[in-house]
Give the backbone structure.
Amino acid sequence: MALGTEIIFIVDLLAIYAIYLIINSSLNLEFGYTGIPNFGKVLAVGAGAFVAASIPGRILANMAGIEGDYIGNNISIITQVNVWLVDNTGIGFVVFFLTLGIAAGVGAGVGLLTAFPAIRLRGDYLAITLLALGEGVRIVGNNFTPLAGGTLGVQVPDPLSWLPGELRFPVATIGLIIIAAIVLLYTERTVRSPLGRMLRAVRDNEVAAESLGKDVTRIRIKTIMIAAAIAAIGGALYAFYVGGTIAIAYDRTSWTFWPFMMILIGGLANNKGVLVGTLLFVTLRKFIIYFKDSLQPFVPFDVVWLDLLLLGVILIAVLLYRPQGIFTEKPTKTISKENFPDKEKG
Amino acid sequence: MISLEYDPIFTDAIIYSSLLVLLSMGLTLTYLTTKVPNFAHASFATIGVYLALIASRIWESSPYVAIPIAFVISGAVALALYTFILKPLIRKGASKAIQMIATLAFDLILIALLNITADYITKNYHIISREFTLRSYDGLFMDMPMILFVAPILIIIIASTLIIVLKKTKFGIAMRATIENPDLSGVVGINVRLVYGVSWFLGGGLAGIAGALMSMWFQGDPNLGVFLIPSIFAASISGGFTSIYGAIVGGILIGMSEILGTRFLAGEFGSWLIAYRPLIPLLFIVVTLLVAPRGLAGINWYRIRRLFGARN
């Protein structure tokens, strides 16, 4: 049974949708709720992808007893690992979740590192610093070969290699959607909790929040760390989904700018906005790529640039004419008292 | 005929520093007025790079012809960004972050248009329009490339003109007053919008000049801005982001450390370090923010000004 092009199209669309949902909900937590302009989102995403590129392959090759230079003979080692994984599905999944855990840890660490020099600064300085640091991820990834194979990239072992070829991507997509749903539930609960209200207080009036005894700097560092951990999971999942990592793919446009655009279209500080904005953007993007080839003969340049041009214009139009996005932020319903009986009574 | 033995790395360092001085002066000028870090600034320079390509390869004249044209066109593009995007956003009360995202979006549009231009040039004129260099179109002066003399001299002229305009002319004083307190300047009859517009035009224009000069020594590419922007911000931030003098010193500091610093470190630790050169501006940003968040303008310039007894 071979899958039709329409199904492949939808499966791929949903997978990219799920990955961007994870990254966008982390950005929404930072930017929408807490007001931290994280223009270095790519840093955490890239960190997660590099973890997926460097760690699970080495662990599995070691367990399977496959010898050789991991980076130099990467393709043959990963092929052997994938064959070995067919009979060791359980280990594959353990290593997969372990990798996500490590990615989250590394992401949080990277978040702390980037937050440290900049967090006490005003919004614009913070944004510049984060943007500049975000450029660093590609430079390091491109040149430090043990991490992700430098300019050649590396392959990532596939925990779903036991599935027959045509089922691999649909099953992976279902898995991604489940993980994205968990992340969204987590962020939704976070923002409805007292912590969520505190984040908005920090965003809307830092001085007032501080006067009420909230340690604003600490809260912002914590938010950056949590968001970076989530984004790193997203990055690792992307690496697993496409089956490889190459440093050059982790550029500012794809992993910082597009997420900002999606949450701005959907509307800041609400998860409904993230869901709809991401869907709109991912679908539009997918269709543009799909129809690119048919448009190519009519223009004297690469259609890719028309895509960038169009998206840039759309974003500026949204900022100018519909700055609140599709869904405006509403006062959130707090979790009902019955859910916290013990805490409330004290 | 005098033939001077020289190491090309010094040419690199001098030209690169001059360009960074120009670029960070322009960036500081726009930041001083609207207080928005303009992430599209580096792409204004790329416009200059392409104008130099067009001047030298299509019109078959000197790339120096492109300098005034780049000043006008890049300035006009910067003015358009301010007038049609930032001004309405500021009027609507958009936050700093939203304004910054708008400049990022504008940068994307510019990069797309530059790439389209590059494709068009290649297709219609059969000229290499990516990763090209115009070194061979530059003249020689004392057996050395002319740009080595033109770049620093032009920068000295531009910087001193700018400083004289800001300090001595009526418009310059109005400009400084607007930077100091826009509301009060409006009250005494200064056209604040005009002042902002002029500083955006000047900022973009200076970047355009830098781009036209850059094409004669470094490689040109439509995506140049992406790689240049951290260095420009590093120069501006280490200069304090609040004064033209700071931008000059910051530009020299970052330019020299990027090129000579990399050479020195590569000599000490091995040539693998060369590839990590783009990390140097990042390091400068982080160190400046940790040690002296107000940059060079925060410490040295105050002391020096007091030393010479200049009024505040």
